[in-house]
Amino acid sequence: MISTERRALLFWPIIAATTMLWAVAVSRSDTATDRVWIGPKPFQTGGRELRNDYWPTLTDAGRWPTVLARTDVWKSYIMLLPDVPVPGKRGPELSDDQLKALIAFMKEHNLKVAFEVGGLRNSKARGGDQAGEKYAKCELKYLLRWVKLGGRIDYLTTDHAVMMNMRGVGFPGPGLGPDRPWKMTVQELTDELVDYFCAVHEAIPEAKFGVIESLGFFQVTGPDGREYPHTDPLLPVWRFTEYFDYLLEAMARANLVLDHFHIDFGFEGVQFDGRAAGALDFGRVLGVESYVQSKGVKAGVIVNAFHDRSVKEPDPKDANREATERTIRFYREYEAAGGKADHILLQTWQPYPDRTGPEDVPNTVLNIARDILRHAE
Questions:
Q1: Which residues fall within 8 angstroms of residue 154, CB to CB, at 6 or more apart?
Q2: Residues forming a β-bridge with 213
Q3: 132-182 per-position pLDDT tens digit
Q4: Count of other CB atoms within 10 angstroms of residue 276
């Protein structure tokens, strides 16, 4: 489920980032059918009220022709789908007719569809050995609205389904959440995540599954052998390789396949790792990328950046420009560092850029996507 405490990214030891998203991806393979993903952040900051330009822009091919021509997968967040009105409104953010129009647009342009989901969110009423099954039931009622209206779901990616529950919803850190309702281990949470996947697979068998977890939670070995410790020293030491190996084992026991792992460690993350040298350090990212691929799973890197948050009340024009420049810098330096991910995702939950598009308007979401795609050609 959506949460304003989504993404305890650990770019800094105690940071908790906001929710929401947009995504674009480019893979190494020229023959892949999922190499470009695009999913502009749907929501206003701090809730699930839609941005005014989101739906009109996405359903108008003339507003993003260059990006659309390169896109294989459209991605959004599950909380785009509820038919429950936000406070103060009488109807859902997208009516059935609007969702049908969006579905028709995706089909017309041969786009696959991906949704990012919670996967597992413990509460007092939901935890233990039935947590995965119970949370699947919660999310399927939204996902199946899309299906019942004629849509297809090709990919589902869980958002911090394990590590958010180590923090506890609403607790940004440092350390483990002292008031989290269920004191489950990483392996116990992973088992429940697989139970979630099993339940969703029965309802939506065509969907391929993926996982997002922020790299700051883990100790990672870089390509040159350097050890990157978890960014919150008050957390237990969890090695990424051990977490990932157990996830694959649990999926195999359930006769399921993990299609992709998307790396969440954006501009602030690689800046944090490179602080001593005053540069962006992609060693942690590349270490995870190569390990995931060595296990036969597609690796994706989320490319994003905040504006300068030292300014308490930024001018939107400045903030849009800063977020744009940092996002593009991240992608170019990642590529120069030797990044070879199957999916390069520019995915934002940040407040800026604050406009979806169109793609030819500088410092908008789709404008960044266009420039990244041109650089990747």
A1: 34, 73, 112, 113, 114, 206, 207, 208
A2: 263
A3: 999 999 999 999 999 999 999 999 999 999 999 999 878 888 999 999 999
A4: 7
Q: Which residues contact 13 (CB under 8 A, 6 or more apart)?
A: 173, 174, 231, 232, 233, 234
Residue 88, classed as helix, strand or coil, is coil
* Residue bearing tokens 């001593």: 276
Burial class for 5, CB neighbours closer than 10 Å (0-12, 13-18, 19+): middle
Query: Which residue type sits at 8?
Result: A
Up-side HSE of residue 63: CA atoms within 13 Å toward CB? 16
Return all residues near 205 (Cβ < 8 A) that are at least 6 apart: none
| Phi, then psi, of 368 in degrees rounded to 5 | -60, -45
CA–CA distance, 196 with 82 (Å, rounded to integer):
19
Q: How far apart are the first and last CA of the chain?
A: 36
Mean pLDDT score of the chain, rounded to an integer?
Answer: 90
DSSP letter at 163 equals H
Cα separation, 314 vs 299, in Å, equals 35
- Please report, for residues 5, 94, 133, 314, 368, the alpha-carbon distance to residue 156 in angstroms, rounded to integers and kept in the order given: 20, 20, 16, 35, 24
Summarize pLDDT for 307-338 with one digit per residue, the tens.
Answer: 999 999 999 999 999 999 999 999 999 999 99
Q: Supply the pTM of this predicted model.
A: 0.90
